[in-house]
Structures are given as structure tokens and as C-alpha cells.
Amino acid sequence: MAENCQVKFTEFKSDQSVKWCPGCGDHAILNSVQKAMAAMGYKKEEVAVISGIGCSSRFPYYMETYGFHTIHGRGSAVASGVKVANPDLQVWQITGDGDALAIGGNHFIHTIRRNIDLNVILFNNQIYGLTKGQYSPTSKRGFISKTSPFGTVEAPFRPGELCIGARGQFFARCIDTDIKHSVVMMEAAARHEGTSIVEVLQNCVIYNDKTHNAITDKAHNADRTIKLEHGKPMIFGKERNKGLMLDGLTLKIVTIGEDGITEADILVHDATCDDITLHLKLADMEYPEYPVALGVIRSVEAPVYDQCVTEQLAAVQEKSTIKSFTDLIHSGDVWDVE
Amino acid sequence: MGKRSKVIERDEVVVRFSGDSGDGMQLTGTLFSYTSAIFGNDISTFPDYPSEIRAPQGTISGVSGFQVHFGHTEVFTPGDYCDVLVAMNPAALKANAKWMKPGGTVVLDVDSCDEKNLRKAGYETDDPITESKLGDYNIVKAPITTLTKESLKDMGLDNKSILRSKNMYALGLVYWLFDRPLDHTKEYISKKFKKNQLVVDANLKVLDDGYNYGNIIQALTPSYHIHPADIKKGKYRNLSGNVAVAWGFLAAAEKSGLELFLGSYPITPATEILQELSARKDLGVKVFQAEDEIAGICTTIGASFAGDLAVTTTSGPGLALKGEAIGLAVIAELPMVIVNVQRGGPSTGLPTKTEQSDLMQALYGRNGESPCVVIAASSPTNCFDYAFYAAKIAVEHMTPVILLTDGFLANGTQPWRLPNLEEWPSINVPKADVNDKDWHPYKRDVEKLSRYWATPGVAGLEHRIGGLEKDEHTGAVSHDALNHERMVEIREDKVQRVATNIPELELLGDENANVLVVGWGGTFGHLFTAVDELANEGHNFALAHFNYIKPLPRNTYDVLKRYKKIVVCELNRGQFADYLTMNFPDIQTLRFNKIQGQPFTVVELKDHFKTLLEE
Question: Are the C-beta atoms of residues B128 and B121 closer than 8 Å to each other?
């Protein structure tokens, strides 16, 4: 691609003033997406950003691309229609934990199952922000909010587990404020053909401030998260001396240099492995038992819905003798009245 | 063929084939209707089958029927009461006895009338004819099962296959009754079973033997003679309402140059449209079988945003689920057609039965002031026309259009004269102009008030739309009070301006009559036939039938105000009558309503209309 034709990331910014709260993680994610699009060499006109409802879903208004702010939970259905109608477009869906996993849960799993080529950025702040502070499907059990003043009595979804359980072929996780890593994740999602889910751990500064702090806090995040990279050993920690190994069917944390363990004993991450077993275990790791996995956890090639639709149309059209409406109506049981 | 002993000359006849849902009655009826159509009769057909796929054998709930109305003159309905009933078992006889015309003919398979089947059908005696009060009718007690077995005994077929051929024996006999050629049916059998010559031979033999059985019993039964109708020259085929809707969209896609997208979820009685368009990959149709009704409309909205001719199909419960998304289509001002094949409601209601009770839902079943165009088809074949015009209006006026059909139109068939697409109007796509320096997402056509279609992929027209209210002049999100009020009025006005592009309301019957009969949608055939027959009997009525509901035709008030007595006939509790009163408070209407999951009968309409003359 000719570098000089490339759209600068600032050119993806629309003229609308951004109306998220000061300090909201959404600002950083907006930057990451714009930088990733510029890095991918996208043209503004080939991009359609589709959203549902919620704080995150205001996103399309801030993008100088085609955009559609739809209705609650239905972003992936609208985005699916856009992509099937015009597979040449780069279709991005912006959603949140309520929009994607509560009211839009059905569309979320079926989009993933079909493997339509959408890039879905899932802002997970574990709270309903736009309606001012009710618990969401990713709020931890016991979470206290305006609609759970005595704590929730529900188990939360883990978006990665849900994605992989719905036969998802791409799942990545990143932290809102780590723009550099987020851009890498979004580019990976953009390059992956099929539905790509990027879960961004996002901070709601007003209603759920510091919800991810235990793992995002700079003082501890090296010990409490692990950045997975395809083909590299699963090593983490400030000292880069902790790693993951399998103990039977469970993951265990080991320290390199203790009990005779060397780097060679540490699991090597294979994001492209079709088998979901290890990917699920990695996606499900939660602090404090485990470090939280960041990076591309799963990225597997599989048939892509919109491509299959296009191929099937072409294959049938090539074989059929019906080329027009007139051919169709004259085929079959037709009689003459004279 | 020989001279027949007794021939009844008739202008029109109604035949009903009825048996167990596994007896092949739909095929038998379809073959008979084709033969009659090719012979040159005008026809109208309607299947009537249980919502269960295989209801208990031999019971009334398991009866499957297929009715054919054909005539020397034009026919507009599948007929209320039948002249000839073919009953393959006692349950079929029991279920249909009340629908017999006095003095009609019943062909009954007497072999099926054993103790077990009689009890299953609910007969208390061993004489179902007398018990059903059919003593004065012309009863052909034909041992169809025995005769079929006899016919095929030397062919080496297993018993199950032999019994499956019973319907062809019955069909052969009915062909004799109406002196119809067997060619088309023989051709069909040879094609359909071409992989199994034994089955072809067996079916052909049974069909012939059934026909010849007529010759043998001719002393016992009259035959009917119906001359061909005076039908406009051309090529014809039989078309159901559902397939007609699908084909209307194919025609609109070709005329507009747009690609056709259908997002839909299976639901009775609309599923056949989804199936038909799924099979039309040869014409490039993109069909998305969605995970639910909501995704059906939402993918349609997405496809419309991306520039396709976008359509979704459903029935009443599905329309309810789509309501919020239709509101999005209204505020985003995107073109699409939402087809609602109405059925009995509320809730799951009567899935396989017909009703007109979704009118108010189509007009108002959304939050906020949310106007759409609402159109209703009125015959199986004009489902094609109204699907085409629904698409044309949607695209040219940039608005969602709800097309109402119903279970009766969807499953009914009529002969359809193949159209020449060149004679159909063009569909002009209001694409946004990249060279227009003043363009913004809500810039409007001054006449239609429609915005322009700017589709992703075009450089320079990047824009954002959505469900939040937008500024009239810039398209940016706006919470301004007066702007909202103006936008609400503009959206309503835009829909009302569609009236300039639709035909005026036509008056049928005697326009000088004292009583105006008003109907809309699928009841046209019955209303017109009732008014027409009454005119022949010396009672004159005017008829105004509506296909365009919102906006109403420009001359609606002028037509209505001429009549002191107006009777609005609907298969609901009076929704269209209420709608007319809302629009024209000084117009008083009488109502004639039926909510039984069944169409009107011409007889009940005529009886009611006559009482209006007396008052």
C-alpha cells in the first residue's frame, strides 16, 4: 500500500465533540480504534461502524466513516446485514457488556457461530453506565449496585468463555488505557477473517471506578496479568520468572528456577490451535487464582459466512439456466390461453 | 368416451378433496386445478390443512383438504360450499358435510367406513351418510381401496405403495365426472417418479382405472360440464400469494437495479416466501435466515443502510417483535418492506388460519410517532403487484413499507398471466449525489420530503445516522424541542405525500346504490362476488375496496361522503372502520365482522347485505 495515500488516524475523527465523561476509558479505546484503522490502511469510505445502545455505542458519531447507532442489543444483527449486503466493507461493531451479553446475547452468539467477518469491540466495564449504575451480566457475584443493594445473586458471564463456547474463532483481551497493546489487538482482529471479539477491560469512572484496578494497576499488573503471544512461552511477572504449566487438566502457576523448572517446561501459546480446551482455560483465568490473560487468546481460520454466501451465489448462478425474472416465470408449469 | 347418461351444465363448480393428512389430498387437488386451468377455466384454490404435520390418523383434526373453484366465468374466491366432495374416510365426510351445497355429489371411499374409522370420526351409527343428513345428496359409494388393490394386484408393488396410489384412483374418477383430459397429470406422474418406472406405471394405471370406473357407474351419477372461460390471451401459470410476494420483490430488484436481501425467521403462514427466495440464488438473492424475528428486521435494516433492496417477512407475532426496529427504520428513514402474512391472534392464536387483525399493529404498533406506509394485497396473484409497488414506494420515498397479506391469500392460488416486465414502471433510486456540496444526511427531496440514499463505500458521503433524533439541517444528534416537533411532522408528511403516487379509490358495483360496501385486503374476492351476485338478483350495491391503507387514496373522503349507509366488512372487530372514523369523524359506518379464522362466505355476506336494504 502506498504510504502517502494512507489516511492519518486523526482523519478518522469526526467533527462532533466527544461526550463521554472525563476520565472514561472510552476515550482511549476511540484512539486505539482510529490508530488501528489508520495502521490497517483503511479508507474512510470503506468503513462502517455499527453500534447498539449504551455509553460505548455513541462511538460511531465520533468516527469520520459511515456509522449507524442502532437499538439496544441489535448491533451485531444490523452489522451482519451490512456485511452480507456489501462484503467489501470493513464492518466494526462497538458494544458493551449489557448491549452484547444481556439484551443482545442471542445476536452475539449467533453472529459468532456464523463467523461473519465483523470486528466486534466489546467494552466491558461490568456496569450499566448510561442508565446510571445497575449491575450487568459481567458484574461479579455479590456486586452491589442500585439494583443489587444487597449484592447480586447471579453468576457473571465471562465474555471469552461465551465467545469460544459459541464456536468463536477469534478472541482477544486488552486494557483500555494500554493503547499500544490495544492497537495491536485491534489490528489482529481486523486481519482475522471471520467474527473477531476484542474484550476491552474498560473503566467506568463514575459508576464502577477502578473495577479492574486489581489487575490494571501499574504497581501489580505485571504479576496479575499475562500477555499471551502466539508461539511464545506463557511467562509473566515483574521478574519474568513465572509461567504456566499444565497439571493434569488444570493450569498451574510455576516459578522458573524453582523445583527444577526451566523455561523449556513452560507452555507455549498456540492461538491457531483448533482445539478449544486450552484457549478456554486461558480465557477463564481470573485474579487472584491466576493472572488474567491479555492478548490474542484464539485466532483460528474457519469458513467465513459472508464469503460463503458470495461463493454459493456465484456457484448457483453459473449452473442455473434462470438468468432473469422473465426466465424464472417462464420455467415450470406454464400454459397458453389462445 | 361415449355418450353420458346425465350431464349437468354449470357456469362454475367447487370441488373439495378431503382425506387424512397423509392421503395426498394437496397433490390431488393441485393436479386437478392445473388440468382445469389448462382446459381454460378460471380457477381459485385454497388448501386447508391442520397445523400438526401428522395429526392422528382417521380423526377430524387430521383431515386435510384442498378446494378448487373453477368456472366458465371469472371466479374470485375458492368458493364457500362445494358441489363435489371427495371424502377418503369418514372423518373427511364428517368434517365437510356442513360445507356441501344442497343436492351436491359426494364420492366416498366406502372401504374406509369400518367400525374403527367411523368411531374415530365420531359417528355413532354405521350409516355416516344418514347421520350427516346427506340422504338427499348424490352419493357415489366407491370402494376405492379395494378397486386400487385390484387394479395393482399384478404389478408387484408392496401394500403400502398400493394404498398410497388411492388418491390417483379418486382423481381419475373426478376427471371422469368433469370430462377432463388426463394428459397433464400423466405427464406430471411420469416426470415426478421418473426414477422408479414401477411407480410411474402403477400411478398411470390407477388413474386410468379410476377414470374408467366413472364410465361403469355413469348410470348412477351425473357428470358436470363446465365450458372454458373467456380468458385474456397469454401465457399463464398457477401462483400462490406467498410465491407471488417473493416474485414481486424479484421483479422490483430487477427493475431498480438493486440487489435483493431478505432477512427472515420462519413463521407460519409466511415461511414459504423465505423458502422461495432462498431457492432464488440463481437471481442473486441474499437470504439471511436469522436467529429470531428481531434479527430478521435488523439484518434487513443493515442491508438497507448498505444499499440493498431489503425485505423482511413475518406474521403477526413476528411483527410484534419487530416493532422497535421498525421504529429505527422510520427515524433513520431507510427503505425496506416488511411483509406481514396475517393469521389469527392474539399470541400464537390460530397459526394456520386467516384473519385481518394486525391492521392497527401495522399502523400504530410502535413507540413514539412512527409512521410507515401500509399496503394490503387483495388476491393471491395481486400479491405480486403489491409487493412490487411496496418496494417501489419504499425506495422512491425512503420509508419502511408494511405489506399486509393473510393466510387466505398466502396459500390460495389463481392463474396468473405472465407479465412483461418492460411494461412495468421503473423504480428510481434516490441516490445521494457526491457532487452536491449541500448534501447532508437529512437533506430532502422538496416534493416527496424523502432524504437521499448515501450508501457506504462512496467517498465523500461518510455520515452517521441512528435512533436518536437528528437535527433537521445538519443530521447531527439533536435534543432541541422544536426541532423534534418539526422532524415528527416531516416524517408524517413524508408518508402522507405518498398519496400523490398511488391510484385513486375505485368504485365497483353500482355507484348509485344506496349502500356502500367497504373492505380492504384479502376479503376482496368474497365481497366482490357477493355484490356481483346480488346485482344479478336485482339488488344493487356499491363496493369500495382498499389496497392502500396509509396513506389512504386521495379521493377516499369524497367517495365515502356520497353514501348514507356504509358497511365496513372485516375479519376482525372493526379496525379499519375505526381507522376511517379517526380520519373522517363525520363519516358513520356500520360494521360486519367475522373472527373465526375463516374467510367470509359469499352466502353470509349476501344475507347480511340484503338486511341493510330493508332497514
Answer: yes
**Which tens digit of pLDDT belongs to each residue from B225-241?**
999 888 899 999 999 99
Amino acid A1: pLDDT: 43
- Give the DSSP letter of residue A61: G
Q: Identify the architecture of domain B507-614 in CATH.
A: 3-Layer(aba) Sandwich (3.40)
**What is the number of helices (H) and of strands (E) in chain B?**
21, 23
> Where do we find the cell 494512507?
A6
Residue-wise pLDDT tens digits, B270-328: 999 999 999 999 999 999 999 999 999 999 999 999 999 999 999 999 999 999 999 99
Phi, psi (degrees; rounded to nearest 5) at B256: -90, -15
Letter for the amino acid at B577? A
Rounded to the nearest 10 degrees, how much is the dihedral formed by the CA atoms of B429, B434, B440, B442? 0
Nearest 10 degrees: Cα torsion B229, B233, B234, B235: 20
> Which of B40, B306, B476 minimises the CB distance to A86?
B306
Q: Residue B53 has what pLDDT?
A: 62
**Cα–Cα distance, B600 to A15 (Å, whole number):** 60
Q: What is the dihedral of CA A69, A74, A78, A81, to 10 degrees?
A: 180
Helix (H) or strand (E) holding B80: none
Cis ω on the peptide bond leading into residue B371 (within 30° of 0)? no
Decide: B21 and B63 in contact? Cβ < 8 Å.
yes
- Residue B294 is nearest to which of A74, A313, A324, comparing CB atoms? A74
Could you please report the per-residue DSSP string of B59-75?
SGGGEEEEEEEEESS--
Q: Which domains does chain A have, with CATH numbers?
A: 3-232+269-306 (3.40.50.970), 234-267 (no CATH)
Q: Which residues of chain B have pLDDT under 70?
A: 1-3, 5, 50-54, 219, 615
Asked if A78 and B236 come within 8 Å (Cβ–Cβ), the reply is no
The CATH-assigned architecture of domain B238-423 is 3-Layer(aba) Sandwich (3.40)
- Contact criterion met (CB < 8 Å) for B302 and A338: no
Of A82, A312, A317, the CB nearest to B302: A82
DSSP B328: H
CA-based nearest distance B488→chain A, Å:
19
* Closest Cα in chain A to B279: A316
CA B192 to chain centre: 26
Residue B246: closest CA among B186, B216, B287, B209: B287
DSSP for B242-273 reads HHHHHHHHHHHHHHHTPPEEEEE---TTTHHH
Query: Is A45 close to B466, i.e. CB distance below 8 A?
Result: no
Do B288 and A80 make contact, defined as CB atoms within 8 angstroms?
yes
CATH hierarchy code of domain B7-225: 3.40.920.10
Q: Which residues of B558-587 are buried (b: 16+ CB within 10 A; e: fewer)?
A: ebbeebebbbbbbbbebbbbbbbeeeeeee
Yes or no, beta carbons of A81 and B292 under 8 Å apart: no
Task: Give B248's contacts (C-beta < 8 A, 6+ positions apart).
Answer: B383, B384, B385, B386, B387, B388, B390, B391
Q: Sketch the domain layout of chain B as residue ranges.
A: 7-225, 238-423, 507-614
pTM of the model: 0.96
Candidates A66, A69, A325; nearest CB to B254: A325
Q: Which pLDDT score, from 0 to 100, does residue B231 have?
A: 87
Cross-chain residue pair B462–A45, CB shorter than 8 Å: yes
| Mutate which: A74, A109, A113, A195, vs B, most B CBs within 10 A | A74
* Closest residue in A to B384 (Cα–Cα): A329
In what side-by-side order are the strands of the sheet with B100-109? A335-337, B234-240, B413-417, B42-48, B63-71, B12-20, B82-87, B100-109, B138-142
Q: Which residue of B has its CA nearest to A86?
A: B306
The yes-or-no answer to whether B238-423 and B507-614 have a common fold is: yes
CA Rg value for chain B: 27
